[in-house]
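Here we describe the complex-level prediction in full. Unlike the single-chain runs in Section 2.1, the two entities below were treated as one system.
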Amino acid sequence: MIVLEPRGKIMGGPDATLLHDKLYEFIQQGRTKVVIDLSRIEWMNSTGLGILIQGYTTLRNSDGQLKLAKVTDKIQSLLTITKLVSVFDAYDTVEDAIASFN
Amino acid sequence: MMKPVIKCNRISIPSAQESLLDVDVFIEGILRGFGADESAVANIAISVSELVNNAILHGNKSASDKVVTVTISKSNDCVEICVTDQGSGFDPSNIENPTDDANLMKEVGRGIFIVRSLMDGVEIEASDRGTTVIVTKCIQ
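The structure predicted for the assembly as a whole is:
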């Protein structure tokens, strides 16, 4: 089980590369139950959403799962606009997200 | 690689995503000076980041000899931002709806859709000399 806590803004530069690389580092280690705590993300754009989708798909194909926790209002709004709210499991707390794996 | 050039209400950057942060700092600073609240600042900053990403990757195709220019102005409590690349243009009617079932799980293709959702107005002027996207948002 891994909990990622990215910070700042995810807009497509080094910020996005860091989240993508960290996520895949853990997947390659066989750690396929991942929670991303989004509470410290100020905002993200479609690049950030693309990374979440890529992670979700890769983990699912590896018999793993990606869960979101503490989604901010700004990101929730983007998930709703893009209908991705129907794709991701999102929880109010990290603890709830972790418990959902069991 | 050239460095970002700021002149009055305009920033010009090289066609590299490393420069996205320079544009964001520039735009957010001006928006706060205009009196925009934090929600408006974030919505506009997200939209500009989408447009600059598109200009770098799809317009200029990351060519080192091409720049992306962003200008910002305010009139009657509404902000107007222009993002211009030096690419060969594109047909906006070819943009697919990312919320269609067939596109929902695609990793890319949401940029313009998000911009249209967050901003009050979006105009795209495309030609073989480049593309300019003009977005407007009223902040009061």
